[in-house]
Design goal:
This protein has 305 residues and is of the alpha/beta class. It has one domain: Rossmann fold. The protein has 14 helices and 6 strands. The structure holds 3'-phosphate-adenosine-5'-phosphate sulfate. The site of 3'-phosphate-adenosine-5'-phosphate sulfate has 21 residues, from helix 2, helix 6 and helix 13. Keywords: Cytoplasm, Transferase. It catalyses: 4-ethylphenol + 3'-phosphoadenylyl sulfate = 4-ethylphenyl sulfate + adenosine 3',5'-bisphosphate + H(+). It comes from Phyllostomus discolor. InterPro entries: P-loop_NTPase (IPR027417), Sulfotransferase_dom (IPR000863).
Length: 305
C-alpha cells in the first residue's frame, strides 16, 4: 500500500473501498443470464453509460436516477459494498466493473449475461484520470501530468529518444486497475460474441441517439420517441452534473474534494489536446501504434481524427 495502491494479482487497486479478502471471494460471484454488465477502463464515461442504461430500463422516467445513488443502481462487483449488494440481490440487474479480464469472475464466461464494453480515447482517459485522482483520496495523487503519464522526466526523455517504450507508464500502466492497453486487449478477446457489445465514448458523444438505439437493440428493448427524448435529456452532461445521485457529490469531502473538481469535469472529446505537450503526444502516438497494431482500426474511432 506504500505506493498509494492496494495490489492484487499484479494489478493496482484504489486503497478505499477494496480489500484483498473480498477481491478473492468475488472470483466466485455468479452472474445471471439476465444481468447487464457495464465494463470499462476507469474514466471512460462509465457513469454516463450506467445512467443511460438505467433510463432505458425506466423508459426515460427519471424517478429512479433521482432517488437512488448510481453505485446502488449498478453496483461495482469489485468494490466491497458493491459485491455485498450484488451477492444479496435476488433478481437480475445492472452490474459495473473496471476489472481487467484476467481477474473477472469466471461465471461470466459461461453465462449469457449481456456485456457492454465502453472504450474511450486513452489520451482523454489519461487526462480525465489525472484530474480526478488529483482531487480524490482513493489512490496516491499524481504529482504532475508527466509523472502520471510516464513516471518521471527521465523516463520521458528515454521515450522521446526512442528507447524504452515498453517500460513506460504511458498508456496507463501503473494507475488504478493497471494498464489501459492490457485492459482493452484482454476484453477485446470477447469481440464477436453475440452477448458482447463495444461502445465508444466518441460515438456516444457524436450521435447519442443512434448509439442508444444500438444499445436498445442489443438489449432487446424498444423506446417510443418520447421515451427516447427523456433518456437523452436525463442522461445529458448538464442534467447528470446537477443530479446528486449521479455526480458523486454524495461522497464525503475527505474522499473527493469537490471544491477543486468533479467527476463531471468536461464531458468532451479531445480535451487531452489542452494538456499534453507535443513531446507527450508524440510518445503516446508511438506507443499506441506499436501496441495496438494487432487490433482493427475501427475499434478506435478517435484515431486519425
Ligand atoms: N453525461 C455525460 N456526458 C459526457 N461525458 C460524461 C457524462 N457523464 C460523465 N462523463 C464523463 O466521463 C468521465 C468519467 O468517466 P467514468 O464515469 O468512467 O469515471 S469512473 O472511472 O467510473 O470514476 C468524465 O470525463 P472528463 O470530463 O473528460 O473528465 C466525465 O465528465
Amino acid at each position: 500500500m506504500s505506493d498509494g495502491y492496494m495490489w492484487f494479482e499484479g494489478v493496482p487497486f484504489p486503497v478505499v473501498g477494496y480489500t484483498l479478502e473480498h477481491l478473492k471471494a468475488m472470483h466466485n460471484f455468479v452472474f445471471k443470464d439476465e444481468d447487464v454488465l457495464i465494463l470499462s477502463f476507469p474514466k471512460s464515461g462509465t457513469n454516463w453509460l450506467i445512467e443511460i442504461l438505467c433510463l432505458i430500463h425506466s423508459k426515460g422516467d427519471p424517478t429512479w436516477i433521482q432517488s437512488v445513488p448510481i453505485w446502488e443502481r449498478s453496483p461495482w462487483v469489485e468494490t466491497m459494498n458493491g459485491y455485498e449488494a450484488l451477492k444479496g440481490r435476488e433478481g437480475p440487474g445492472h452490474v459495473s466493473s473496471h476489472l481487467p479480464i484476467q481477474l473477472f469472475p469466471k461465471s461470466l464466461f459461461q453465462s449469457k449475461t449481456k456485456v457492454i464494453y465502453l472504450i474511450r480515447n486513452p489520451r482523454d482517459t489519461l487526462a480525465s484520470g489525472y484530474f480526478f485522482w488529483s482531487i480524490s483520496n482513493f489512490v496516491k495523487k499524481p504529482e504532475s501530468l508527466e509523472q502520471y503519464f510516464v513516471g518521471s522526466p527521465k523516463e520521458m526523455e528515454a521515450l522521446v529518444t526512442g528507447g524504452r517504450a515498453c517500460s513506460a507508464r504511458a498508456l496507463l500502466t501503473e494507475v488504478a486497475f493497471g494498464s489501459w492497453l492490457e485492459h482493452v486487449c484482454g476484453w477485446m478477446s470477447m469481440r464477436g460474441k453475440e452477448n458482447f457489445l463495444i461502445v465508444s465514448y466518441e460515438e456516444l458523444k457524436q450521435d447519442t441517439r443512434n448509439m442508444i438505439q444500438k444499445i436498445c437493440q442489443f438489449l432487446g428493448r424498444t423506446l417510443e420517441p418520447e421515451e427516447m427524448h427523456l433518456v437523452l435529456k436525463n442522461s445529458s452532461f448538464q442534467v447528470m452534473k446537477e443530479n446528486k445521485m449521479s455526480n458523486y457529490s454524495l461522497l464525503p469531502n475527505w474522499l473527493l474534494d469537490e471544491k477543486n473538481g468533479s467527476l463531471m469535469r468536461r464531458g468532451t472529446t479531445g480535451d487531452w489536446k489542452n494538456h499534453f505537450t507535443v513531446a507527450q503526444a508524440e510518445v503516446f502516438d508511438k506507443i499506441f501504434q506499436e501496441k495496438m497494431a494487432g487490433l482493427p482500426r475501427e475499434l478506435f474511432p478517435w484515431e486519425g481524427c
